[in-house]
Write a structure and sequence with these properties.
The protein is mostly helical and about 120 residues long. The protein has helices at about 1-15, 20-30, 35-50, 60-75, 85-100, 105-120. It is globular, with a radius of gyration of 15 Å.
Length: about 120
């Protein structure tokens, strides 16, 4: 139910850490997000880089990223089997909203990743 979903989302909001297990689930679930999959995986990589201390993200934004990921992987929003895409549409729009809110931060991170990969290739 929506109430339960909202509660889950706001629980997620207070968190600034996420377990290995949750990150693994997120990567597995990404394939269901269609064209949002790449964007979702980018959010996951941002969280990982922040938790490793490689990339600085303010705690508010980090909590928002984690809340979005938790929302997507939370089993609570699983739609009935005969309507498998309803739940995922929701998730994709959550990813889209996060991209709008954190647009600048995300494009900075994309630049950071490109640069990091370029350096790897040089070495």
């Amino acid at each position: 139910s929506m109430k339960r979903n909202e509660k889950m989302y706001f629980e997620g909001f207070k968190r600034t850490n996420i377990s290995e297990e949750e990150l693994k689930n997120a990567k597995e679930k990404a394939s269901f997000l269609g064209e949002m999959a790449e964007k979702f995986l980018l959010l996951v990589r941002m969280i990982e880089a922040a938790l490793r201390g490689e990339y600085e993200i303010d705690l508010g934004s980090l909590a928002l990223l984690i809340a979005a990921v938790i929302y997507v992987i939370s089993p609570i929003d699983a739609a009935p089997d005969f309507l498998p895409f309803i739940g995922w549409l929701d998730d994709a729009s959550v990813v889209g909203i996060i991209f709008k809110i954190l647009e600048d931060m995300i494009s900075k991170f994309e630049k950071y990743e490109k640069e990091k990969n370029r350096i790897k290739e040089l070495n």
